[in-house]
Input
Amino acid sequence: MASSVLKIVFSPSHPQGGTGRAGVMTDVHRRFLQLLMTHGVLEEWDVRHLQKHCYRVHDRTATMEALEDFINNINSVLESLYIEIKKGATEDDGRPVYALVNLATTSISKMASDFAENELDLFRKALELIIDSETGFASSTNILNLVDQLKGKKMRKKEAEQVLQKFVQNKWLIEKEGEFTLHSRAILEMEQYIRETYPDAVKICNICHSLLIQGQSCETCGIRMHLPCTAKYFQSSPEPRCPHCNDYWPHEIPEVFDPEKEREAGTSRASKRSLRSRQH
Amino acid sequence: MLLKPENGALPIPQAEGEKDGGRDGETQALTASQKEVPSPLLQETPMEDLGARREEGAVDSTITPKGARTLAAKALARRRAYRRLDRTVAELVQFLLVKDKKKSPITRSEMVKYVIGDLKDLFPEIIARAAEHLRYVFGFELKQFGRKHHTYILINKLKALEEEEEDLGGDGPRLGLLIMILGLIYMKGNSARETQVWEMLRRLGVRPSKYHFLFGYPKRLIMEDFVQQRYLNYRQVPHTDPPECEFSWGPRSNLEISKMKVLGFVAKLHKKEPQHWPVQYREALADEADRARAKARAEASMRARARARARASDRAGICPW
Output
């Protein structure tokens, strides 16, 4: 084997924009990536803050790129690693969020190293209940009742309660009044996996055609829409009607998310955040 | 979990075995500059041309239809093989990032078991490419603990910032505790008895088995986590009766922090200057000098290798892209 080895000699440095394909990574981008990875998922205002912080640390004199271009630049470099910074929105009020997600693997592999086999199986069981549910929420009781069916080491209900809290802390699940649904991070990371694994049970939004966990549905024809998608679609309609069957839309139309309003409500944000931090 | 690699013969040459680039005997930085492997971003067409050149035996200028089919099949197999190699490298990068988040060192056998599979003969090339990605894209350096122990960790090349530590939450207080212990160890002459460590912590209100709101169970954090993460070494002191155990700095601490920094921290704590402890100060100065020398050596050899590579690629006339 060794005798037929040929040394292939290449320039060690990466093309500095030479190929015209991949962007250029500097310490600004690297720090941004590292911190985004640490947080798992970040809201857009946090991401802008983060971008500013990275420029301040590494390159004060440079003009800051627009966030979209900044992220596209990084994504072009990440392409060869089959990962990307993906933008999504929270399902309850449409706040834009960003996460670093896998493009290639179709499993819950990112969780796999943080959790034991029986913990991963608990997540899978919770995931299935959430997907099958009407509201997108699975009750703590129903999840804990499945504890006997878990693969791997036997888990007691008390332990399972703590594992569920671990999922919440790591931003895979959100808890609301004893019920669990998927965190926007999980939706961003696992959409492809969920669509491939549960093709029959999965719900899709009629407007944006993405995975839907929480949303509103038409009582006549059954189509579903995300709350923020509903807000945008019916924004200027005095009389909201189902886009599919034209029947009256029976639900309250939520407000469109407005980042400006969020910033103005600066002082009350603190209390809003503490509420949200329980969920997100 | 991660994609399982399929079977198949790969007409990819082995990267040459690990060079003796070890500087301070304890760790080796694994970057692509140490290994003569292609830069990971330069994956696609150029490789295929080289693949053709790599074929053993001369390619006949007169090609029969059957020969053309064979060549086409070989080219296809080569492209598939490169794609598979790319994917494996990408998976290894993700695997290393995820594992490093827990701060536990990663062994070669883990990498082979979970990611590389039956491409394990190409381990040197795969890990070199992964190291280059980690360096260029994320700013992490992949370091190996010694030449024999196939264990690796990631070192952050970006300078650490104090504000960020607070943002990250969780980790901050624990690392603070670690630095206190490292400080004690250093001031006691590079090793401290276990009893001394617990005595110091007791004065801070930290007891081994009492749950602490910042550190969790301190005994588990120190005896298990810190030791497993190679921040601390823990061993039994020979010829002690009853048997006593002592802590010393683990290899990871030596990589992530310096004696001078820890001395500075201890000094600040006591509201004094580092020079107040002349013995430790001299030792810290010597340590700084060693680190500077090692760094200079590393940079010099990297430059030399880059020059050698530039000369060689000029000769071969290969356009990198």
